[in-house]
Amino acid sequence: MLKRKEFILGAAAGLAIAAVATLGGVIQWPGARAEPGAVSDRLTPSAGAPGLAFAPPLGAPLSFADIFQQVAPAVVQIDVKTRVQRGQGGFSIPGLPFDFGVPPGATPPVPEGTEPGEGETAIGAGSGFLISADGYIVTNNHVVENAEEITVRLADQRELKARLVGRDEDTDLAVIKIDGGDFPFVTFEEQAEPRVGDWVIAVGNPFGLGGSATTGIVSAKARDINDPNSPYTDYLQIDAAINRGNSGGPTFDVYGRVIGVNTAIYSPTGGSVGIGFAIPAAVAKPITDRLMRGEAIQRGYLGVSIGTPDAEQLDALGLPAATKGAVVSDVTPGGPAAAAGLQFADVVVTMNGRAVTDSTDLTRRVSAVQPGQRFELEILRDGRRSTVTVRSGVRPARAALNATRNALPANPDAPGGTVAGQAVAGLSVAPISAPLRQRYGIPDGVTGLVVTGVLPGGDRRLEPGFVIQRVGSRRVGTVADLTGAVGAARQARREGLFIQLWVPGEGALPVVLALPES
User: Fold this and answer.
1) Distance CA 259, CA 265 (A)
2) Is the distance from CB of 382 to CB of 347 less than 8 angstroms?
3) pLDDT tens across 262-298, in order?
4) How many CA within 13 A on the CB side of residue 257?
5) Rounded to the nearest 5°, which phi and psi values hold at 392?
6) Which of 79, 168, 170, 172 is catalytic?
7) C or N: which end of the chain has fewer Cβ atoms within 10 Å?
8) How far apart, in whole angstroms, are the C-alpha atoms of residue 89 and residue 97?
9) Is 182 in the active site?
10) Quick check: is 234 catalytic?
11) Is 362 helix (H, G, I), strand (E, B) or coil?
C-alpha cells in the first residue's frame, strides 16, 4: 500500500552499540580459545585517523552537518486549510485514512463561526523548498490541492502567507509563492545522474516537527510504483526515512543539490520502513519551470484504456508469448483513438516506427506529443498488422477522466431468480432486451450478451448482469456470435477468449474468459 504524506506517528526502538578502543586491548570471539602468544587469535582494533574513534569508509562523509547547515534554510514547512463536508466522521487532516476526535457514526460538532453548508475546516501540513530568491517554492500537488489558505513557515520561524502559482496533478508537483526577496534557495541537479548506492539526505517537516534531516542511499532508480494518479514518473527509491509531513520536501545529494522531491512511501505498517519514493529532478525541474512561468501543463491524449498484455491474454488473442506492446481494453467514445479506428483488443506494437515495450511506455510517449499533432501507431488486430494515424487531443483533468467511471450505475439489488438463456462456454447468456436491461440496470448505450447465469464448470468470476460486449475486435450481438468465437478458439487450441466485459459500477473491463472442457 502506498502512503503519501499521511501516516501514524510511531516510535522505533534502536539498538545502540558502544565500542571502546583501548591501547593493547584484546577482542576475542565468543568461544575462541586463545593460547599465550597465539596472535592469530587476536583482533586489535584501530582508532583510525588521529583523534577519531572511527575512520569513515572510503567515499563516506565524516558528517552530514555541513551539508544540512548549507541547505536547511531553504526548506520550509507548509500548513494548509481546506473545507471538508460535515458528517464524515470528524475533524480530518487531508488524505488521512481516518478521522480524529469523533467516534465512528457520531455527529461531529460544528466549529464556531462556520456557516450552514460550509463544512468544517481541515488542516494539513507538508514540506517544500525555495527554488528562487524571490520566493518561489516547490512542493507536492497533494499538499496544496484544494487548499483555501496556505501558510509557509521558514527556517527562521517567520510565517508568511503563500499563493498557489500552478500545479500538475499527473506528476504530483506544485509551485507556490511568498512575497519578499533575498530568500535562501537551492537548485535542482541538472547534469549528474545519481547512482544506486549514492548518499542522499531528506530534509522536511515530519509530523510537524520541522527542520528534520534523515540520511540514506539511493536504493533503486526508474521505479514504477503503479500509481494511476502519477503515470508519468519513474521514481527514485531511497531508504532515508520519510513520513507524514515530508511530502514535498527535497532529497539532496552530498553536494547539497536537489535530486528529488519526496512524495510517497511503501509501508505495510503506516510508517516509514525504509522504502521511500522521490520525483527525480529530471522530471521535477521542467515541470516546475513551466509552472513558475504561469504555463498550464498540457499533455497529448489518445482516449483509450490500455494495459500490458500478459501470457494468458496473448494466448487468448492468438499472439506469440514474446509479443511486446500495449493492449487496448476500452476506447473513449468521440476521442482521438475512436476517430482513428482503434478498437478493443488491438495491440499497439510501435509508435512512429519505434517499438512500444508496455502500456507505461505508450502512455508517456503519447503524453509527450503536442495536442493537435499527428502520430502513427502500428497495431495487431486478429493477428494482422496495420497502421493507424491519430491526431492527438488534450488530456483532460483527472476529475473529468474519472467522471465517466464514477457515474456508471451499480445494481447490487438486482432481483434474484433464474432468467432463461442459452448455454455457451459454461455460461447462460441472452441478447439484451428491455426487461433484462431494466432488471440488471444496464445503461442504454451498453450492447451485447447479458450473462444470466454461470453453469457448472463455467468461469465463476462472471455474475448475472454482466454483459459480454466484444470477443477480440468483434462485437457480440447474438448467441451465435459467441458460439462461433468459442468454436474458433477451441479449434486453435486456446484456453480462453479475450473479451470486453461490462460490469455494473466498473464499466468495460478486459477479461480472459476461461473455456471449460468441451
Assistant:
1) 17
2) no
3) 988 776 666 677 788 999 999 999 999 999 999 988 8
4) 14
5) -65, 140
6) 172
7) C
8) 11
9) no
10) no
11) helix
Largest Cα–Cα distance in the chain?
99
Q: Which of 258, 261, 342, 271 has the alpha carbon at shortest distance from 301? A: 342
Residue 494 CA, chain-centre distance (Å), reads 34
Active-site annotation holds for 142:
yes
Q: What percent of the chain has pLDDT over 90?
A: 42
Least confident of 98-107, 248-257, 339-348, 454-463: 98-107
Q: How confident is the model at residue 22 (pLDDT cuts 50, 70, 90)?
A: very low
- At 190 the pLDDT is 80
- Pick the catalytic residue from 142, 219, 346, 481: 142
User: Considering only CA atoms, which of 317, 274, 278 is closest in space to residue 485?
Assistant: 317
Section 327-342 average pLDDT? 92
CA 255, 78, 76: angle at the middle one, nearest 5?
30
CA gap 419, 428 in Å, rounded: 9
What the block records as the C-alpha cell of 201 is 539526505
**Nearest-angstrom CA–CA distance, 286 and 234:** 15
Please, is 430 exposed, middle or buried when counting C-beta atoms within 10 Å of its C-beta (0-12, 13-18, 19+)? middle
Q: Cα-flanking dihedrals φ and ψ of residue 438, to 5°?
A: -70, -40
Q: Tens of pLDDT along 79-92? A: 998 876 544 433 22
Q: Which of 127, 247, 267, 359 is catalytic?
A: 247
